[in-house]
Amino acid sequence: MAFAAAAPSSILRVTSSCSPIGAAQCRQQPRAVVVKVRASAVVSVTRLSFSSEPTKTIPLRRSRGGAAGAAQRLQRLQRQRHVAAAGESSAAGGAAAAGAGAGESQGDSVANAEGASSSTTTSTTVGTGAVDFKAIGTYFGATVVQALLMIYITQKLDFALLGVSNPLAKNGLIAVWFLFNALRSRTFSPLNAARPKVAGEKAAIAERKRPGWMPPPLAFPVIWSTIALLRAGASVAVFGATGTLNHPAIHAMIVHLAVGDTWNSINNVEKRLGTAVLGVGCVLLSVYNVVWQYYGASATAGYIIAPSALWISVAAFLVYTIWKINPGPDGVCEPLLPRKQVLQVAAA
């Protein structure tokens, strides 16, 4: 390979001979590269070939180093091309195809190498774009779909209970159904509404600041399991007072569970701190509605379910506090509304 000296606004010619890797492949490889240089900046690269492939001129972005830098980069690319071509030639019957692919990929490599900056870059994806109305619609739609599906199944259960004469069996079936919903209602959610495990909660604590008054991770499974029992017991009390599961109080509980699963997806899966604050506000309003509806159907049911509203009030304040003490690098907290993801590139 030889390089000819080039002055500003001149042409730098780089020539190379074919490596002995087969005549068929050699005919497909470029034999010369012409680099146009203007004012110490590479303008374009022209590949010349002895094959029937037409001459290609590849425009390049402004590059540092002028002709000398271009020569060094092209020399390095030529070495890489010969190594790649030698490896490809070992495949039986694929010599001609490999040579053609090497010729095309070299042109892309030259353009990419000349356009790259001398400094490395890092990229990160953040939600600082426009409001993501598609995400908002997804949250709302998933909540409605889940609630309607659960209400439909509950009404089918209510119809089936008409054939059960034993009150104890009726209450048992209702308790099992609502206990299942209290623990696994996310089964009916179109979203990934997985709840965090103890190990995952510990990892999240390491990633985000937590207030000193937050309960230890081991306390959360115990608290939520207790609330599941309260939900099942309160629902049995509502059925005992009204004689039906097709009641506004039962519907309020189902909506509350669906809203909670959507919040789980936002906070624990998507990890949108700002939107999680709005979401937990919706969860809080829905549980207050449950207490009011249950108390209206049966005072006993209202008293049984009331502790869940107390705990979710504490949990809502915890979510708000975590959001406030974990601002971004610019010192600003994440926006409350979901934002479209934007790729930010910064020099290292």
Describe this structure in words.
With 348 residues, this protein is α+β, with helices and mostly antiparallel strands. Helix content is 58%, strand content 12%. A five-stranded antiparallel β-sheet has the order 1-2-3-4-5. A two-stranded antiparallel sheet has the order 6-7. A hairpin with a 6-residue loop joins strand 4 (41-49) and strand 5. The longest helix is centred in the middle third of the chain and has 28 residues, at 133-160. The chain is elongated. It starts with a strand and ends with a strand.
User: What is the 3D form?
Assistant: elongated
* Assembly of the depicted chains: single chain
Q: Give the N-to-C terminal Cα separation.
A: 35 Å
Mean pLDDT: 76
Low-confidence region ranges: 2-67, 91-105, 109-119
Number of helices: 10
Structural class: alpha+beta
What key phrases describe this protein's structure?
single chain; 348 residues; alpha+beta; five-stranded antiparallel beta sheet; two-stranded antiparallel sheet; 10 helices; 58% helix; 12% strand; disordered N terminus
